[in-house]
Amino acid sequence: MYVWPESRIRGLISVAGLRVAEAAFLRSQLFAETGSLMDLFNIKAFIFGVVLYVVYKKTGKHPIIYILASGVIGVILSL
User: Fold this and answer.
1) What digits encode the pLDDT tens for the residues 50-75?
2) What pTM, to 2 d.p., does this model score?
3) Residue 38: exposed, middle, or buried by beta-carbon count in 10 A (0-12, 13-18, 19+)?
4) Helix, strand, coil % in the chain, rounded to nearest 5
5) Degrees to nearest 5, angle at CA 75 with 14 and 63
6) Is the dihedral angle over the CA atoms 64, 57, 12, 7 positive or is it negative?
7) Is the Cβ–Cβ distance between 49 and 24 less than 8 Å?
8) Selection from 57, 49, 53 nearest residue 73 by Cα
9) Do residues 69 and 79 lie in contact, with contact meaning Cβ atoms separated by under 8 Å?
10) Which run of H or of E encompasses 34?
11) Smallest Cα–Cα separation from 71: which of 54, 52, 58?
12) Among residues 40, 55, 47, which one has the least CA distance to residue 77?
């Protein structure tokens, strides 16, 4: 059965996005050590992601601006 290349590309991009979200928002090693549900989620990163999403949707500027700003803010806040 032939699968269109676009479907495979969408799948690869989706998996990559999920892996990035997992690395940014979840702290599975700390959760495995402590067993506390509050240690599973990186609350600061989650709040920062929500704020960044809202600002992006309100202003609609080029995404590279948000990527650069996120990098600078992440270094400052040690996320």
Assistant:
1) 988 899 899 988 889 988 988 898 88
2) 0.65
3) exposed
4) 80, 5, 20
5) 45
6) negative
7) yes
8) 49
9) no
10) helix 28-34
11) 52
12) 47
Paired tokens of 57: 């949707």
* Euclidean distance between CA atoms 53 and 51, whole angstroms: 5
Q: Position of tokens 């989706």? A: 14
Q: What is the per-residue pLDDT across 7-50, written as a single tens digit (0 to 9) for each?
A: 888 889 999 989 988 888 888 888 888 888 888 888 888 888 89
Structure tokens at 10: 């969408």
Cβ neighbours for 49, distance < 8 A, ≥ 6 positions apart: 24, 25
Amino acid, res. 41:
F
Contact criterion met (CB below 8 Å) for 72 and 48: no
**Cα–Cα distance for residue pair 48/21, rounded to 1 Å:** 13
